[in-house]
Amino acid sequence: MKSRLNREEAEAVALRALAWTAADPELLGGFLAFSGLEPAELAAAARDPSALGGLLDWLLADESALLAFCAEARLAPEEPMAARAALPGFSGDHLRDWA
Hints:
- The protein is mostly helical.
- The protein has one domain (7-89).
- Helix content is 66%, strand content 0%.
- The chain is built from seven helices and no strands.
- Helix 1 (7-22) crosses helix 6 (79-85) and helix 4 (49-60) packs antiparallel against helix 6 (79-85).
């Protein structure tokens, strides 16, 4: 895994995470509750780098979901964090939990 992703690479990881989340009604419900989005707003969210960052925030907060996504997507568990860091709204506060 590259330690840094560019924005395009980060968005690709987040879109994969969104597709994975949307395929599971329980996970999708959790993300929608977390984000305040309505199901009809998901297409617009997929084009919004800030919303994609929010999706990664949600995923990073749930270790079991994160690991399941990474296993299915064949990503290192650190890659969603690297993607999050490349998207708008990243404060670095996430790093305390990953140190």
